[in-house]
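Protein modeling request. Please complete all fields; requests missing the sequence field cannot be processed.
Requester role: graduate student
Desired output: 3D structure, token encoding
Chains: 1
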Amino acid sequence: MMAKNHGVESSGEGRGKIVSDLSSPFDSFPEDCISKIVSFTSPRDACVAATVSKAFEYAAKSDVVWEKFLPLEYASLVPSSRHFSSKKELYFALCDEPVLIDDGTKSFWLEKASGKRCIMLSAMNISIIWGDTPQYWQWITIPEARFKSVAKLRHVCWFEIRGRVKTRVLSPITRYSAYLVFKKTDSCYGFDDVAVEAGVGVVGHEASTRTICFEMDVDNERDMSWIYPEEREDGWMEVGLGEFFNGEELMNGEEIEMSVLETRDLGWKRGLIIQGIEIRPAKIQ
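Delivered output (285 residues):
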């Protein structure tokens, strides 16, 4: 079966695959040689290569290929109780089933088409001003969340959230986007057409900022310079905070900080449920 958004087949063998009966000039190569060549491509390309011929199909599903696409620490990411028939099956499991890491405060998975690393920082792993004051924020458990606890906004006027991620836990030479993942309760108010400042940047350097808005008044027109939330496939909402490029010069322990601030209007607000901040490869425009 082909993935809906990425054009990469699932781990199920024999479902939705189109394998050519034509021969290829490379068919005379040893299978391990073809596998080695394919391992220098990407998961998407490996799935395409498998359609070239029978020889490529067998070579492209070998462990030699798919182990190359797995993170170096993959063994520590999988519970010992889980067993996989191949590295390809393990790869797709890490794409489709995010793994909780760092005592359950972060979620890790791979982007299916590229194998790039993705991270979600839970609300427990980010800084929420007044987050430890029950009068202002409440920590609750809901079944649709990835994490044990999420943060429910009860009543604040000073709205400030900050999260940090080390660049070395992300894929190098990759442009990333950061998103705040949240829900709105029926009693949500105080965010209608309110400009909220979002920032993303390297700690110690000036951040790139943009204006986001959690809720638009239906009677008003959209401000085209603002960023508005979109609904996710998992039922949550997300709003883009910004992008950054994880270049080689950032791989020596630097941190990226993401922020969400409404500290100017200072009107009372309530009714957001914060799951966390998600960092994943940016879409190519």
